[in-house]
Write a structure and sequence with these properties.
- The protein has 6 helices and 14 strands.
- By secondary structure, the protein is an alpha+beta fold.
- It has one domain: Jelly Rolls, CATH 2.60.120.
- Strands 1, 2, 3, 4, 7, 10, 12 and 14 form an 8-stranded antiparallel β-sheet that branches. A 4-stranded antiparallel β-sheet has the order 5-11-8-9, with no helix packed on it. Strands 6-13 form a two-stranded antiparallel ribbon.
- The N and C termini lie far apart (42 Å).
Length: 295
């Protein structure tokens, strides 16, 4: 039986190394200008998270997930070999990789991720869930325009953060994430589908909001770089029609103190947390508390 890595709430390998004193964390801190940009636009792109060795290790583990009957497949929260609604395109989408393999487990504790997340969340960082979004070469499908929190209303308050980490170079040509700057100040929009029509969101927008959609900003990244975005920021990505894949791992985090707003299970197979109870326990570990940095 495969090991469930969610039982371990610390680094399992030497792939990542935490600084041993406060000064060691300084290299990972966002600047005041970067934080201001995030607050103004609702996203921040181009943050280095992974080195070449870490990228290759994650790619190796990821390749196993594409194989039928792979070890640990019973541990996924969700697993879709193709979530695209268009038959000629493919969008691999899965939740729960951190439970299946040690490198996908350890990336949650990447020093660059946890430090930036604590600054943007303005407090201790707790894990919510992870995702994989993979678009194969030539026929990769879209991720339709959406706000992440529209899928997360089972938790409150709105104190969430998404970190999208490229395992390949992400460009306009192979379907990088696109953002609508300032849309994090909009109200919560109805869900119009995650992997279908890129135009479906028009039905729920005002004319003024639709006007902003005429100027999306592509977040082109080198492999190992990340974007961070607010849970209400509208984002999506177009098809991959070139010869290179576009693979990414996503870490969704919450500020410590976010509570359950549903008595049923929050993720498939995870024991329920009662309404009003704090998100914590085996499946929602505390990743980082800046107050605990050694002096």
């Amino acid at each position: 039986m495969a090991r469930d890595w969610s039982e371990l709430h610390e680094l399992a390998t030497d792939l990542f190394a935490w600084p041993t004193d406060a000064s060691g964390w300084d290299q990972y801190r966002l600047t005041d200008q970067q934080i201001a940009s995030y607050q103004q636009n609702g996203y921040l792109a181009g943050i280095p998270i992974l080195n070449a060795t870490q990228i290759e290790t994650l790619r190796t583990e990821l390749a196993e997930f594409f194989e039928p009957g792979h070890d640990g497949q019973n541990l996924w929260y969700e697993y879709h070999t193709n979530e695209s609604t268009t038959p000629e395109t493919v969008l691999f989408h899965a939740l729960g990789a951190w439970r299946l393999r040690p490198a996908f487990h350890d990336v949650l504790w990447s020093p660059a991720f946890v430090m930036a997340a604590s600054q943007l969340l303005e407090g201790p960082v707790r894990f919510w869930h992870d995702q994989l979004f993979c678009k194969p070469a030539h026929h990769g499908g879209v991720v339709a325009w959406h706000q992440d929190y529209s899928y997360w209303t089972r938790t409150k308050p709105v104190a969430h953060l998404t970190c999208w980490i490229g395992l390949d170079d992400a460009t306009n040509d192979n379907g990088c994430v696109q953002y609508i700057p300032g849309s994090h100040r909009w109200d919560l929009l109805p869900i119009t589908g995650l992997a279908g029509n890129m135009e479906a969101i028009r039905e729920v927008l005002t004319d003024e909001q639709w006007e902003q959609f005429q100027h999306p900003v592509p977040a082109e990244l080198k492999a190992g770089e990340a974007t961070f975005h607010h849970p209400l920021t509208v984002h999506g990505s177009f098809e991959n029609r070139i010869e290179r894949p576009r693979r990414a791992t996503v870490i969704n985090a919450i500020r410590d103190g976010v509570m359950s707003d549903k008595n049923e299970e929050l993720l498939t197979g995870v024991p329920p947390i009662a309404v009003g109870e704090k998100m914590q326990g085996q499946f929602f570990p505390l990743l980082f508390d800046p107050a605990n940095i050694a002096q």
